[in-house]
Design goal:
heterodimer, A: 64% helix, B: 89 residues, mainly alpha, 3 helices, 83% helix, elongated
Chain lengths: 236, 89
């Protein structure tokens, strides 16, 4: 019965969504997209058009996204807060391969994440991707040493400061160019395709990278040390 | 010669689409939660390849780093902290 209902629901969804599937690729851009494609590089000086759109034209949305991420991590941290004296299992120590690999890979992985968000205005990727890569580097450390605790005070400070700096960068645009998160007139656009170019876009993406990285790392730490057992013991 | 490479790429694309479909169905039907999580990670990785082929490298990076990497790990930790199989139907 349940399966029949599910099947009917899927078929109904397919019927509803069928009209939305473009059967051929659109041949021309809409007016807004055309403006972005033609003027994006000239107006912002960043060679990665996606970044120009995400951080400048739609910068306010990105501030909202960062806030959503903050709220979800804060919620997860609240739900998973450590309950003292509930279940304490002796963690199984990681194998030597994992430990050595983590020690070897941590620095390159974090460096690569930083590279991604520092070069966000030039190459694909940016704050969110770089932050996630940094957090996976931290995850390696946590996997190698199960007793390791991350400094939550420091992570919280880093996260708050970077969120604050995003708003400050937006206010600088308001002060210098008359609109929140404006790019022109705050910092020089520099020459195209150089690291120090594209105005405040790289600044904002670095801030987002630090914020996402510290949030996700704190979330992983909270999850790894949350109450609950390893595997089956907790259930018995 | 060019044509051969193009058809080869299209074949690979089709294969990857098939991987996405199979692993998505695997997530839905598998009783073992660990296997379901791994299937979800494989689906994310294949989808990120498709994003790359559709000329969206930014989205592909996000999908690979968050979909295939971090969220898989977070699900794995959650499954470990709770229990490994799904009860009943």
């Amino acid at each position: 019965m349940k399966q029949i209902v599910a099947l009917v629901a899927v078929v109904l969804l397919a019927v509803v969504l069928w009209r939305l599937v473009p059967l051929a690729a659109p041949t021309q851009l809409g007016p807004v997209a055309r403006h972005y494609a033609e003027w994006g590089v000239a107006e912002n000086g960043g060679s990665n058009l996606v970044t120009s759109i995400v951080v400048n034209y739609r910068g306010f949305d990105t501030l909202g996204e960062v806030t959503v991420l903050f709220l979800s991590v804060a919620g997860a941290g609240f739900v998973l807060r450590r309950r003292h004296g509930l279940v304490v299992h002796e963690p199984i120590p990681a194998s030597e391969i994992v430990q050595t690999g983590a020690r070897l890979l941590f620095a390159p992985v974090v460096l690569f994440g930083a590279y991604i968000f520092v070069h966000g205005h030039l190459t694909p990727g940016g704050g969110f991707q770089g932050g996630a890569v940094v957090a996976s580097g931290v995850l390696l450390l946590l996997l190698a040493d199960r007793d390791r605790h991350l400094p939550h005070g420091f992570l919280g400070l880093l996260e708050s400061l970077s969120g604050f700096s995003y708003v400050l960068a937006g206010l600088a645009g308001l002060w210098a160019a008359g609109s929140f998160l404006a790019n022109r007139g705050v910092l020089p656009l520099g020459s195209w395709n150089r690291l120090l170019s594209a105005g405040i876009i790289p600044v904002i993406y670095m801030v987002i990278g630090l914020k996402v990285g510290s949030e996700l790392a704190a979330l992983l730490d909270v999850m790894m040390h949350a109450a609950g057992g390893d595997g089956e013991e907790a259930h018995r | 010669m060019n044509v051969d490479i193009l058809t080869l790429m299209n074949l690979v694309d089709l294969l990857i689409c098939l991987v996405v479909l199979v692993s998505a169905i695997g997530v839905a039907v598998h009783r073992n939660l660990l296997a379901a999580v791994v299937f979800a990670g494989v689906a994310s990785l294949a989808v990120s390849y498709l994003f790359l082929r559709l000329a969206a490298p930014d989205v592909a990076m996000t999908e690979a780093a968050i979909g295939a990497g971090l969220s898989t790990v977070i699900f794995l930790i959650a499954v470990r902290k709770t229990r490994e199989t799904e009860d009943g139907s």
